[in-house]
TrEMBL record, chains A, B, C, D:
Taxonomy, superkingdom: Bacteria
GO molecular function: malonyl-CoA decarboxylase activity
Pfam families associated with the record: MCD (PF05292), MCD_N (PF17408)
Gene3D superfamilies, alphabetized: Malonyl-CoA decarboxylase, catalytic domain, Malonyl-CoA decarboxylase, oligemerization domain
GO biological process: fatty acid biosynthetic process
Domain Malonyl-CoA decarboxylase C-terminal: 159-306, 314-375
Residue ranges annotated for the Malonyl-CoA decarboxylase N-terminal domain, each copy included: 76-156
PANTHER family: MALONYL-COA DECARBOXYLASE, MITOCHONDRIAL (PTHR28641:SF1), PTHR28641
Name used for this protein in its record: Malonyl-CoA decarboxylase (MCD)
Amino acid sequence: MTTLAGLLSTVFDRRYVGSAAGDRRDIMTLCSGLMAARDEVSGMDLARRVLDRYRGLDDDARAAFFGWLAGEMEIDAGKVATALADYSADPTPLAHAALMTASEPPRQDLFRRLNRVPGATGQLVEMRADLRRAARTDGALTVVDADLSHLLRSWFNRGFLVLRPVNWDSPASLLQKIIEYEAVHTIDSWDDLRRRLQPADRRCFAFFHPAMPDEPLIFVEVALTRGIPGKIGALLAEDRVLLPKAQADTAVFYSISNCQPGLAGISFGNLLIKQVVADLTAELPGLRTFVTLSPIPGLADWLTAAGVAPADDAALRQAAAHYLTRERRGALPRDPVARFHLGNGATIHDIHADADPSASGQRQSRGAMVNYLYEPDRIAKNLEGLNEGRIAATRSVQSLARQAQIPEAQA
Amino acid sequence: MTTLAGLLSTVFDRRYVGSAAGDRRDIMTLCSGLMAARDEVSGMDLARRVLDRYRGLDDDARAAFFGWLAGEMEIDAGKVATALADYSADPTPLAHAALMTASEPPRQDLFRRLNRVPGATGQLVEMRADLRRAARTDGALTVVDADLSHLLRSWFNRGFLVLRPVNWDSPASLLQKIIEYEAVHTIDSWDDLRRRLQPADRRCFAFFHPAMPDEPLIFVEVALTRGIPGKIGALLAEDRVLLPKAQADTAVFYSISNCQPGLAGISFGNLLIKQVVADLTAELPGLRTFVTLSPIPGLADWLTAAGVAPADDAALRQAAAHYLTRERRGALPRDPVARFHLGNGATIHDIHADADPSASGQRQSRGAMVNYLYEPDRIAKNLEGLNEGRIAATRSVQSLARQAQIPEAQA
Amino acid sequence: MTTLAGLLSTVFDRRYVGSAAGDRRDIMTLCSGLMAARDEVSGMDLARRVLDRYRGLDDDARAAFFGWLAGEMEIDAGKVATALADYSADPTPLAHAALMTASEPPRQDLFRRLNRVPGATGQLVEMRADLRRAARTDGALTVVDADLSHLLRSWFNRGFLVLRPVNWDSPASLLQKIIEYEAVHTIDSWDDLRRRLQPADRRCFAFFHPAMPDEPLIFVEVALTRGIPGKIGALLAEDRVLLPKAQADTAVFYSISNCQPGLAGISFGNLLIKQVVADLTAELPGLRTFVTLSPIPGLADWLTAAGVAPADDAALRQAAAHYLTRERRGALPRDPVARFHLGNGATIHDIHADADPSASGQRQSRGAMVNYLYEPDRIAKNLEGLNEGRIAATRSVQSLARQAQIPEAQA
Amino acid sequence: MTTLAGLLSTVFDRRYVGSAAGDRRDIMTLCSGLMAARDEVSGMDLARRVLDRYRGLDDDARAAFFGWLAGEMEIDAGKVATALADYSADPTPLAHAALMTASEPPRQDLFRRLNRVPGATGQLVEMRADLRRAARTDGALTVVDADLSHLLRSWFNRGFLVLRPVNWDSPASLLQKIIEYEAVHTIDSWDDLRRRLQPADRRCFAFFHPAMPDEPLIFVEVALTRGIPGKIGALLAEDRVLLPKAQADTAVFYSISNCQPGLAGISFGNLLIKQVVADLTAELPGLRTFVTLSPIPGLADWLTAAGVAPADDAALRQAAAHYLTRERRGALPRDPVARFHLGNGATIHDIHADADPSASGQRQSRGAMVNYLYEPDRIAKNLEGLNEGRIAATRSVQSLARQAQIPEAQA
């Protein structure tokens, strides 16, 4: 729906139902009215008022609203018990329906009713970001987040997402968001952005949702290269020599950024990489290698905690290899980026010292970076292995890990 | 996603996971595999195989599959009871989550996993059409339909729908579907279609969903007129005089058709009318009246059942007025089209005999038709009235109803 | 410019300059005013009035207007002589400019001024169609046509044309024109059209001009086949088996139609074929052969004139081979379609009897058809040959021609 | 034509005609070949080679090429004389055509043939920029410029231009050009640009040509205000208060920039203003006043030349009023910006001292600026007046001019 249509729709609703401006009911009362609305017209109007009202609330009022959602819009255990007893006695469709109704927290229906308003999806995503912040200090709100994320997961499923290239012909309003959302290698300026988007050996792709057409959900920056690079500086350098794209044999995913805190936990990265590999392969049949150049965000903290102080680059690479292949959180790697790529079926291909001289690179990993390799033929096997606790790494990385000097208490 | 991208995506998946052609597992086994899949890549591949497999099934095999969904993918009442007891004892977020999981039939998650495949939404809509047919002879399938329609209602909520004008510049492939889906006044030929779309005093609008961009969900045909018409023939006549659109004061909704049997029960009509009124008002500020010229599909059957045999046009109008304003199904009008428009807040404005000479018009209502009037200022009040059992009709229609000669047993 | 913008522009001009409705000046006076206009605003207004006025003229008034253009808007030979004398005496830039002005008929500037109005280009194309008709009975108008076609050739040069595929997703309003403009194998119905556009082994492409975005200039219909076909019926049959497009090795151009009589003599066909070959090659690298299945429109008339009465299919093929390779108009082939394809560098590849059973096929060529083959590597050589009077044909066609029994007076 | 299609077209041509890389003929020889080409295929190939070759030439070689165009591609006065004699003796269409051919310099046809190559139009525009530079030192080239500008004027006529809004959703690649081409009030940064494009009370519009879709020809920046502003600083200030667009009653054209030096002398500004007034009026019916806030680029130089040294702001305004209303170049105002706006029918509305504190504002006009007012109802009358030597100015501006103290020699 275009903005114009949205405007008209608003105008029309106001004609139908009267201005919301003088409506003094609080947001909880409006929500209750929305749940009770029997016709679409008044329901839509009330949904719009709820969303307008929410926008005007301060943090405390929002927390109070979330508390109300957690408490008043919760299931009634007694009713569930009654419905369950009826269903167990005679599992008719009617009894089944009654049980379904009783066991679904009413706030789920509230969120669905709010989502009917054009443009509401983006607001619900923002609401979840608020909710997650509030839930950090009030654990009881976790149940509200469970319901809202359940719905968002359903609404943002892969079948609804659209992959679009982002390039120097993209709208400036979108590019401004790319600058803002870039989370791995900060974009300093529009010139820096242009260097990442305009050259023929650079690409960027993002997922979008039709109900939030101006908001990227996640994006990946890609460099086309010959061979696998080991230093981020060479990729981003202002004065680098352009590679004619026909000569490229490697696509390097050097930055992946999630854009919407309100969609935390709803993973798009794996599907994004897979789709981008497919699109690039179709465009450039000469590409043979799909690989990342990734940060190791947890390395420095772990080194400190483990009392490991690598004396030189060689020792740092060994320690990083140990950290990535042997340090776990449950059965999975301890490092979050490793968890993501290995969980997609990639292989740890190589580790580089002195690869990211930026302040954040030094702070996170003392400048070390890692290549995760995506090999279509090995992905299924790697995933099977991971399910059985094996981390996929090349022999040379495994060898590095074996050479690492780790204090016994940690090894 | 474009067809090309879809194709590539398929190609790529095949490279990843191997061809599905030789896969001899039955659809139930594939579904179980999909539910167990722990990574996105193999999950997507299995979802695609399930959908491919489903397409190849005959009616009996589909019925068997639905039966399996109803039986094996049902909640386990015992597990619900256990989870409910835990939650009642100590309503922690974890206990809440466990109860939510136990009380949601696993087939809901199955449908969501299937929907991740690009293009799957349309197939799920078709699956529901099959399911509804099958449920007519096997009531046990109703619970599957309840779950699938629950999800479709969430995915097809108003916020995701897009209104688009349909006109003579629309793609022929879309217009072919309009011809096919028109359910009220059959479109005989492309020339007939052109007469309804091309003239400056004719309009057509349809709702679309981004995941099914080539499939209209519902559409309405509109004639711009001076005054409220009482005969459908005048609107559709080949040789009628065109009205300069600046002279139009009335928009007549003379045909509304739902296109997707798989979305039955998920109502778009009210929102469609509302949005079209808003868009037309913005374009043509001279429009004052928004009205339908509607069939009365249940009239003839009711006349027969009630033993009413109107002697002339006047008596037919009286009987129709009685039928529309007094004959009920519960608190609502007995006539399905009346139920729809009155349920949107419209008023019964006038009744016409000899209005639809077509075979279906004669069969359904002995040629009678009705105008439902949409007045923004009265809609809220009409809806309130309807909630209290009052049917909105003009004085003249009420007067007609009072004059009707109905055998006592019926009146 | 969209229609809306066009409308606004009109509205605005009317505000500026006053309504044209009451303007009683004749079209010649308006044209003189336009030539004298010193500012853009009044010039644009007058140009629009001229075009409006022209539309309202009947055939006689148009002929009178063309006569005025030929007479009054002609060069003044005396002024040319003076300017030429000045220039010859002292060829300064000023003298050059004066000569240029004197030797260009003022109607050229008039046409350019008319063309400034948005939408005018299409009207000038129509005006030229009128003009060509009028010139058939009034040879003096030829000079006007020379000037107008000079300008149109400049405005419709290849650099401004846009190639667009025409398919079943194209606007119905465009497809309606395709039905209307098809000049070779009549399209009977929308179903017939769909059979030519929708299947994966059928294509259609058209050239458009940005100033006439809704009007195709020329289009070609293409069938993808295995091997070179010899009968049009097999290509158009309703019940033919679809060819998976990956199996196609041949693209058959079986119908090329010019759409705009007002652009007669401004050739787009060669460029169209060339561009379509390029686009198809890029999409379907498996295509090896680009060939036509073409009518022989002049064959039957020539047979009659030459007193040749082929006794059987073999004799008809021989006679056709003779006609195509030996009968000339100047140095070029006598047959207009042969002239076109040989003039593009194609080779006469094969001749088929009993190939077009339609009434027009029988009338034009007694059912015979011909394949012209486009071989990129031979085109330059064929064109050189043609410049020297040699017609490119395969050995088998040359052999057929030698066997033809042609009465001596003709051979 | 898309870049992809352009690429394919190139690839295909190379297949047809062989690589141009080894072609050692000089550009003049290639041009002669192009003029002699009898078929489209080889003509297109040669045209492409000419354009490629031209791009590789240095300034001296280009000057030599222009000299060749001026000399060798000139009309032959003897042939014109012969053709004129024939035509004067017997003005047949053939004699007319021969005269037309003889009196058109062959380079015009050369430029038309070059323009057939997709993308050539932009290169010809650049060629004219080079040509105009070269003509400054070699007056003989003026005749080439006359021919090239004659053709460009025909190709860039208003009917082919497209007006597009430029805003913060426009492609970054386009906005980068806006930054570069802004000629009146320099755009410092992307933030500065955003302040001019994104707010609801700011607009920008540009004309484009379909054959150069990524290149603006001219653009205007507009501020929506209440009342007529007198200082540019207030319009561009970073911290200004946004005006709700419904409250705006005035549209201020505060910057108009031509983008293509190769289109110098082909005026788009008047039509741009007219179209923008029409579009804004349609969108915002509350707009009553259309006005500029313009520089007075010739003021400071004239003050110096005239020996006028205004003592204060009041004296500066008086001197500026005198300069704008009384100092002429021929019958028109001496100031180039005044010439443009008065030539469009505008009125000098007011003059402001201390209005543009920028360095260029001080240098050009000692900080003074002027409002030109566009009143639809007065434009025709103002233009008539201008034709008779009267400059349209308000009474207050006329009064200012009368008060100016100008040394007698100048007054």
